[in-house]
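I am writing to request your help with a piece of structural work I have in hand. I set the record out below, with my sincere thanks for your time.
___
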Amino acid sequence: MKIGKVPEAVLKRSVLNQIHTRRKEVLLGASVGEDCAAVAVAEDEMLVMSTDPVTGTVQDIGDLAIQITINDLASAGAEPVGVMLTVLLPERVSEQKMRHMIGQAEAACAKFHVQIMGGHTEVTKAVNQPLISVVGVGKAKKGKLVSTAGARPGMDILVTKWIGIEGTAILAKEKEAELSGTFPQAFVEQAKAFDQMLSVLPEALIAVRHQVAAMHDVTEGGIFGALWEMAEASGVGLEIDLKKIPIRQETVEICEYFDLNPYELISSGCMLMAAADGNTIVRELEKSGIHAAVVGKAVKGKDRVLYAAEEKRFLEPPKSDELYKVL
């Protein structure tokens, strides 16, 4: 199999189809496109959990590990509470490097008032670069949980901020010397600074207050992957205008340089949403300084169509992230 997410057909056949044991306390479980699970702990409250590894980069790995986990919890409408970290290190990594990674993670946790509750640290021959896997725990009131599967025909499809911002930041940091030979240093620095926009917690809080029906943070596989996963989870088709999907010029130029498709580039910091009245949510987000755009509609049926001027194409299941072509 290729590096990246396990293909959807394999995931269904060899993972999801083997999970049969059920408990009534589990309100949201394993499914295509779902980033979190939820467990009832009281009559009016539930725990929401997510898990994710950071494997695509070692630059700022501690910060990224926390950011993507907070984003998963936010996309479910949950308040983040704590994380547990599994840190796997190759033999050549120094104690100073480990201290730096944990320091990054703690700084990110402090920003969101989230506690590192525990975990596991190990030096192992099983990895050739540092790997951090995070279990995130949040809480939500009963009836307030938002899933990827909430899109319904007729609803607006929204995208917040810009696609590809995480991938752009990673490439600008990992390939800074190479890019600086082609682009002005100010351009590269601007692209590196995209890592300051990776949290989707602010837009999630606003969207939940304004009746968002579904949310999915755009990670591996980019916006094309996220669109497919939301449509698959919700059982709907899509009509999406490619020209309306927001993208920064820095992302366009760096993707052109490396011959990458920005629509299939990892995009933490960008949230995909579905809502009956997307324009209201866009206006509320803009009031808070968060860029957003309605990019299309959910429709009946299974056709997931992308329009660009007079051309149209059909969305395909998620592929390996474009980032792996370079890193």
